[in-house]
# Entry
Amino acid sequence: MKKIISPTFLIDKKKCLQNIKNMALKARRHNLKLSPHFKTHQSAEIGSWFRDFGINSIAVSSVEMANYFAKNGWDDITIAFTVNILETDKINKLAGNISLNLLVESAEVTEFLSNHLTYVTGIFIKIDTGYHRTGLSSENTAEIDKILAIIKSNPKLTFKGFLVHAGHTYFAKDKNEILEIQKKTIVQLSRLKEKYINNWHDLIISYGDTPSCSLSENFQGINEIRPGNFVFYDVMQYHIGSCTTDEIGVAMACPVIAKHPERNEIVIYGGAIHFSKEFITSDNGYKIFGYIVKIENNNWSAPVPDAYLSSVSQEHGIIKMPEKYFYDFNVGDITGILPVHSCLTANLMKNNSIII
Amino acid sequence: MKKIISPTFLIDKKKCLQNIKNMALKARRHNLKLSPHFKTHQSAEIGSWFRDFGINSIAVSSVEMANYFAKNGWDDITIAFTVNILETDKINKLAGNISLNLLVESAEVTEFLSNHLTYVTGIFIKIDTGYHRTGLSSENTAEIDKILAIIKSNPKLTFKGFLVHAGHTYFAKDKNEILEIQKKTIVQLSRLKEKYINNWHDLIISYGDTPSCSLSENFQGINEIRPGNFVFYDVMQYHIGSCTTDEIGVAMACPVIAKHPERNEIVIYGGAIHFSKEFITSDNGYKIFGYIVKIENNNWSAPVPDAYLSSVSQEHGIIKMPEKYFYDFNVGDITGILPVHSCLTANLMKNNSIII
# Structure
């Protein structure tokens, strides 16, 4: 491994491949199409790892990302982000080259697309099953009917189905709460499917979120899953029960620059512009920006018990380190940190990562 | 202005120049050297704006940033970040080309530098006056004396003085608390200066943080100030009283992609990978990720009363918008958002900014 002298994002290929394999096997078991969300890694190389598991279609969260992966050989892409009509020209260029699916949540935008799309494009309707970020309530069949009428009237628009991201699982406390959320989501989606399947025989129910897809064995009525984070996992996923710490496939490697024994703190070069400012709150009420691991021989250890990244400013991070491990980390050493939210950390570290 | 179709960072040059001018005038009034911190903008072009105000020396927070500004004509740079000894080779290359100052907070690291630096380099000792991130307590004169003894024994090391970043002003509730923190800091620095000035006639007291430098008129004993954020300011600075909203020199421009009248929410394309996840907490306990402004004719309005960016996920932002303004923002419009922490937003938006 190249000598690390500044904050570096380590990607453990073996762990990532195992994570992909586990999800691909689960999808096969449940007869689901796996259309992984590539916003997590945004990397052509990591994307290529999915090919061996029979993955041919992906989800992304921006036109820019869709363009990037289209240039890297992906030709079946869903932009799983409510369409931004200001990017219609870019969308048209892309839809001329690949099989592209867009997301709508209003008749207004669907009408706009109907008037401005130049190529045949797939349309998913975004359904909100409780996350309340975007999407139509599954009970808002009036608006759904309006959207479907517009789609029906224009052969350039192909109705793909209903798409859900049950992002409220990220706020769950444990596995049971995640499964409860997923169960409720499935009930809503089943009703929708029942109502519309007769007129739209090929409609797909596309379901997102790493927590449910990792934990659930109930995918009744679902045709496609779009988890993204699972390739890396992270401390947040561990915290809510989606993975073990051993499954976390990425770690930050950061230089130790100072130590403060009087308060059991270790200062690292590595801050908000490397990790992001995402944190979880411990049961005792303190903020955790990452777990601490030891980097040794192209590998990292299990988390050091009770050690954590307790704060980040622009370039600095502060580690709270129990006294018994305090002297295992010295100025000039590289310490490892499992990130709280690997998607945001990967986004920040795009140009400073090493695959091990 | 170029047509905006995706999240874009707008920089109002007129406001920024006024902010620079105000700080330069204050520095002159108090006979202080202004050595602005360029981590806020990380931009050669914005850096060049400071030249007209007689600025010749700057602070940065990484070797990488020092290299960038050195390549862009800055030849007097303080890396205001405790030295990372793993980057000694890079430091040596840089110190051969420009006048470079480093920061230490231990005899151990000073000894390392003494053994490995190849060019004459300035050394500041980092003092912690209560922020408790990095630095030595001003009372820890035993360690300070050890550091000074090492510096004295090696002509390559030039003692520059004591450097403080009173970052705890960022957690202050109001102007009075900021001034109280600064007053206590000045007392500690004065004691240090008194103790060491006889042996080190040229020692500099270098003082940071935008809140104090914006609000205080008491710089007794201080020789140099290194505020950074003031060129842009942001919602956090407004919140603690360092600036007016009118002085905020940057705004994000983001497309409106959906509206949810049933909960007075507007969804924008613009999330954590554009804004960062920095937030302030309102008096009522809710999180604010930005204030909302209207973008009109190369300009933006005062904040829309009671409107705010209430959450951000990777690419989405949710705006809470009072009903009376709800219909002023439509799908396909561009809305403006004053960021909570302009340094982090500027870092994320480096490649998507427009100077207006």
